[in-house]
Design goal:
This protein has helices at 14-24, 45-55, 67-76, 83-96, 108-115, 144-149, and strands at residues 4-7, 31-34, 60-63, 121-122, 126-128, 165-168, 179-180, 184-186, 197-201, 207-210, 216-217. It is α/β, with parallel strands linked by helices and 218 residues long. The chain has a single domain, classed as 4-Layer Sandwich (Purple Acid Phosphatase, chain A, domain 2). Helix 3 crosses helix 4.
Length: 218
C-alpha cells in the first residue's frame, strides 16, 4: 500500500534523517515530501543532500523549497552577498562542504536538487508547503513570503479554501512537539536545537521521530 510521508525541517541533521528513513523503509510505491529547510544550522547539510539524492532512487521524492534553500541558492548560484545567509545558518552548511573560499565546492548535482524543489505539493486530501499559506487564495496564487517565510505566530491561517489539510514546517516548536489543529499540522520539531526530526504518514497518522544523534523515540 502506498504512503505519503512528510518530513519536517531537517536543518543539516543527517543522523536524524538517516534514522527516520531507516525506520520508514520507503518503497517505490511511497511518496516522501521534505517540507524545506533541509540545509543550514545543523552539523552536516552536505550529507543530508547526499541522503536525499539516494532517496530519490528508492521512492517518489518531492522536495519543497524553504527559506534556507532560497538563501543558499541566491549565494551559491546567483552570487549575491552571503551576509544574510551566513547570519542564519549558512556557515554550518559551508563548513560541511569544507569551504575554503570557492563556492564551487558545492557539487552541481547538489545545486540541481535544491533547484528542483517546488513551492507546494498536494494530494486529494492534503497540501504541503514550507511555512504558511493564505487561506482565501488558491495554492498557485500564493505569495512567496507566505509559502517560505511567514511564521505561524505571525499569521495563523484558518482552513484553506480547498478544504484540504495543510502540512507545514518552518515554525519550530522548541518543546519538540507537533502543533496540530483540525485543518493544519506543523511538524517542525526543532531537531537542530536539540529536539526531534519528525516524519508523518498523512493518511494513517503514524509518526517517526529521531534526534540529532540518530536516536529514535516512539
Amino acid at each position: 500500500m502506498s504512503r505519503t510521508i512528510a518530513i519536517g525541517d531537517i536543518h543539516g541533521c543527517d543522523l536524524a534523517l538517516e534514522a527516520v528513513l531507516t525506520a520508514i523503509a520507503p518503497t517505490v510505491e511511497d511518496t516522501i515530501v521534505t517540507l524545506g529547510d533541509v540545509v543550514d544550522r545543523g552539523p552536516n547539510s552536505k550529507r543530508v543532500i547526499e541522503l536525499l539524492l539516494q532517496l530519490s532512487s528508492r521512492c517518489r521524492y518531492v522536495g519543497l523549497l524553504g527559506n534556507h534553500e532560497e538563501m543558499m541558492l541566491k549565494v551559491v548560484v546567483e552570487r549575491q552577498s552571503p551576509e544574510f545567509w551566513l547570519r542564519y545558518g549558512g556557515v554550518a552548511t559551508l563548513d560541511s562542504y569544507r569551504f575554503c573560499g570557492k563556492l564551487d565546492v558545492v557539487p552541481p548535482e547538489h545545486i540541481a536538487l535544491l533547484q528542483s524543489f517546488g513551492q507546494y505539493y498536494e494530494t486529494p486530501t492534503h497540501f504541503f508547503t514550507h511555512a504558511n499559506y493564505e487561506e482565501t487564495k488558491p495554492l498557485e496564487q500564493q505569495a512567496d513570503k507566505f509559502l517560505r517565510w511567514k511564521r505561524l505566530d505571525e499569521h495563523l491561517p484558518g482552513p484553506h479554501i480547498s478544504g484540504k489539510t495543510a502540512i507545514l514546517g518552518h515554525t519550530a516548536d522548541e518543546s519538540g512537539e507537533i502543533f496540530s489543529l483540525k485543518h493544519l499540522i506543523c511538524i517542525d520539531t526543532f531537531c537542530h536545537g536539540g529536539q526531534w526530526l519528525t516524519a508523518l504518514d498523512v493518511s494513517s497518522g503514524k509518526i517517526w521521530q529521531a534526534n540529532e544523534e540518530g536516536k529514535l523515540r516512539a
